[in-house]
Amino acid sequence: MKNLKLIITLFAFLNICNIKAQTWTENIAPILYSNCTKCHNSNGIANFPLITYSDAFNKKGSIKDQVEQGIMPPWPPDHDYRDFSHERLLSESDKKSIIDWVINGAPQGDISKAPTPPVYKKGATINSPDMILRMPTYTINTSSDLYQCFVMPSNLSLSKFLSDIEVLPGNSSVVHHVLVFQDTALTCQMLDNATPEPGYTNFGGVGSNSAELIATWVPGGASLYHFPTGLGIKINKNAFIIIQVHYPAGIINKQDSTKVFLKFSPSNSLRQITIAPVLDHDATLTNGPLFIQANTTKTFNAEFNVPIDASLLFIGPHMHLIGKKIKVWAVTASKDTIPLIKIDNWDFHWQGMYTFNNLIKIPAGSTLYSEAFYDNTASNPEQPNNPPKDVVKGEKTTDEMMLVYFAFTPYQLGDESITVGLKTAPNSGIVSTPQLYEPYPNPSDKSFSVDFYLNSQEFASFEISDINGRIISSDNKFYNAGNQHIDLQTEGFSKGIYTLIFKTGSYSKTKKLIIE
User: Fold this and answer.
1) pTM of the entire structure?
2) What's the mean per-residue pLDDT of the chain?
């Protein structure tokens, strides 16, 4: 019995030691910098920063509660069903570290071991854009969610292909998300002309059936879309570019002037990327119409027969406030199932376009399926009506939608090996050693974006050397495990060929940089 008590006491002591081992400098800061601070910084949409130790300490209770409940960081898709690039996910180990850190009083630790804080710049990262479209300065005063659309002519005399597009919120503290469309019709321009203020209000879409989605921006997500080599989005001759900005409720007398940066490919023979709601609540709904009676729940299904071999780049489901769950998959002619996305707790306020790690082939003869569940009862916390009312298809806040946007292109042999996001393979767990991916854009004149992977938390260094082997710049920081990103600034460097040297404790890799 004494031995048993001794063992129990020993285990309890070891557990306490493990809790005490968690510090902000060595354990918590790397987690926050990798998953939270893109929104939680002084220029972000979150209402408080988490950059410094004081920031985190002052919000430790809220951090613990949000992590325990799985509310933060927000990532609606089910990772076990399909993983995506740029995922905002905490591992069980990360969650435990945060919770244990708070329970133990949130100690700071050795400040000399703290990772370098990330810097979130206000400017664009795209290199040498061919076109910059800036919406008129707009003053927001709203007590409810506001969707304001701004129309700008492209003035293109010929159709061109986009190789890069970046959305830069003018005031990221008030911009919830941005959708960018193109349209050759005059509908949006007429809607804009009919209002005295800049832009016009339209919930859901932009009010034109011919408008085509070309880009999105959501907090914490990628703002720059750099399409794979040989692929691009076609911007039509004389198209209007429409920026729809979602401003959340409760904003008083704040201003915004969001910009869109476009870079065109010198080639006009790229493979065209199309973004369209292939699964929708009209043509593909099998048990429509989309109508949810008050005080009821209902499941709807949609399906679409794929006529060609297609390659998918992104996917984006869209519902409103009554929607609660949505699942999308494909079944091939040989009855193989291809999981695409599954969201079990739909949150209208955290939606977006989700990027696959690699192009996904959907063979001709396959069927795309979607299944969505709607809750029009008083128990739905997002219920917009009190008491509940019948809900129909439409673009108003109190209406509903069931759309699934796909970014796709006709399939070509070898598409499955083309990387769209950060990861090199569609299945997690395959990459088990540090990786350095190709810098982009390359050549460049001001900066390079570099994606890399670490299989554990550790220091990683980046050095740039000239053709004589002389080190021109160096950077050494502590990074969290997983897929990472860094922007290397090379403005002021002489034109020429340089070498990027990536080092960890057990790994070294080089890549060529061309500065023009």
Assistant:
1) 0.71
2) 87
